Amino acid sequence: MSSVASAPVRVRFCPSPTGNPHVGLVRTALFNWAFAKHHQGTLVFRIEDTDAARDSEESYDQLLDSMRWLGFDWDEGPEVGGPHAPYRQSQRMDRYKEIAQQLLDGGHAYHCYCSQDELDARREAARAAGRPSGYDGHCRDLTAAQVEEYKAQGREPIVRFRMPDETITFTDLVRGELTFTPENVPDYGIVRANGAPLYTLVNPVDDALMEITHVLRGEDLLSSTPRQIALYKALMELGIAKGIPAFGHLPYVMGEGNKKLSKRDPESSLNLYRERGFLPEGLLNYLSLLGWSLSADQDIFTMDEMVAAFDVTDVQPNPARFDLKKCESINGDHIRLLDVKDFTERCRPWLQAPFAPWAPEAFDEVKWQAIAPHAQTRLKVLSEITDNVDFLFLAEPVLDEQSWTKAMKEGSDALLRTAREKLEAADWASPESLKEAVLAAGEAHGLKLGKAQAPVRVAVTGRTVGLPLFESLEVLGKDTTLARIDAALAKLAA
Asked: Where is this motif: 'HIGH' region (predicted)?
């Protein structure tokens, strides 16, 4: 079997513009991108948009926007161009029609006139008899008279590829040597009756024309590989393909209940992660762990570190389960790796409408810059910043009633009065001084710091959990802090 895998690496990422991009698609793009970068090769970004009923320009624009957001730079494709343009299949139809005719003329394909009802009936009969239920070759060798009879009936044929009567064996880069026998790989359609080419034709044809050396794709496409290898051989005979690429089939990404994560699962949508404030580098770090690892003891790494180490033969074939909590944890680690200035800028969208509950004029840049380093240590996703800092920019804190009930125990009013006295006398240029004030108030009432600061936190921020309290009080300021404690005392008295 002639292979092109020894040539300079050329891989492709070829999604269909149907709906929002999902994390399984992103994982496939990531592995192709990292493989190309590792080998100083070429990443071809190709759009498979031959399904006019499902494809849309909106989804196409989303795909390009998502690739840019993720930081994937492609060497050939939309907006970049390249020697094999165009890179949208909808613009390559004449070439597919030409090659389909060449396959027919060369005896590698034939017209099939079987109706769907006939196909279904023969498949059912094959199943009942315990035989393989794939296409039975009914139209493989029609006589001229049979063809004329079908035409007289008004039947419009599809084009089927003629599979060779031979076992096909190839070495998968992830799964090792795989073998498919002829009875399990029947002839298959490559052109619809209306003349529209099918994925089974256009995908390998474009790979051949674009001289792709390695095909890294999902495990769900594994069953189509022997068919494509046979088609490559035919294309080589016709002088269209130079060889057969190496294949690597990536493991499934599993969701809840150990079911394959599908586009319909809410947690699969890339847009969801963008809206929640995942960093591209954090999300990609986690997705890379779905089937691959940098080392046994290192989960957190940069994309540069991944590129330096990535080898597709290290990808594990077993399905990988998507764990949202681990994804959030890794993203939080990447948030803490950011330069503080970078962090403050990346949070901007969640500090403005429509996410921010405060008026634009209430936002205070000085307060934001002061609190940002403390917020950076606490967030898992950037969208959490809104609730964490709203107490700084709202006239009154958003009071969580459960937090109030939990913190305001019997005697909390006396504690708050003492804390107010201590805080009023404290040095507000020092968070440590504010901590000492609340610690002293607690000691006066027989409470440790943890118990003493809870009523103060709820009075000032509205919640029992949040950013470091004493740094928060310092940024909020003395007057506002004392006024909120007074308001809490009034509420307790009522």
From this structure: 15-25
Higher-pLDDT residue of 264, 78: 78
Model confidence band, residue 2 (pLDDT cutoffs 50, 70, 90): low
Q: Are strands 158-161 and 168-172 parallel, antiparallel or unpaired?
A: unpaired
In this structure, what DSSP letter does residue 316 have?
Answer: -
* CA distance linking residue 53 with residue 57, whole number of Å: 12
Q: Count Cβ atoms within 10 A of the Cβ of residue 300 and give its class: 0-12 exposed, 13-18 middle, 19 or more buried.
A: middle
Length of the chain as a residue count: 494
Q: Whose CA is closest to 227, among 193, 188, 192?
A: 188
Structure confidence at residue 187 (pLDDT) = 97
Q: Measured at the alpha carbon of residue 416, what is the angle toward residues 411 and 422, in degrees to the nearest 5?
A: 130
Q: Are 293 and 330 in contact (CB under 8 A)?
A: no
Instruction: For residues 141 and 160, give the distance between their C-alpha atoms in angstroms, rounded to a whole number.
Output: 12
Report the pLDDT value the prediction gives residue 4, as an integer from 0 to 100. 64
Q: 157: cis peptide before it, omega within 30°?
A: no
* C-alpha–C-alpha distance, residues 177 and 200, integer Å: 23
Give residue-wise pLDDT tens across range 170-216.
999 999 999 999 989 999 999 999 999 999 999 999 999 999 999 99
| Residue stretches of the annotated binding site for Zn(2+) | 112, 114, 139, 141
* Active-site residue, 406 included: no
Amino acid (one-letter) located at 389: V
The answer to whether the CB of 470 falls within 8 A of the CB of 435 is: yes
- Detail the residues annotated as belonging to a binding site: 112, 114, 139, 141, 263
- The one-character DSSP state at 462 is S
Residue ranges of alpha helices (H) inside 277-411 are 280-288, 303-309, 324-337, 340-346, 365-376, 385-393, 401-407
Half-sphere exposure of 166 (CA within 13 A, CB side): 8
Residue from 263, 406, 409, 491 carrying the catalytic annotation: 263
Q: pLDDT digits over 369-394, tens only?
A: 999 999 999 999 999 999 999 999 99
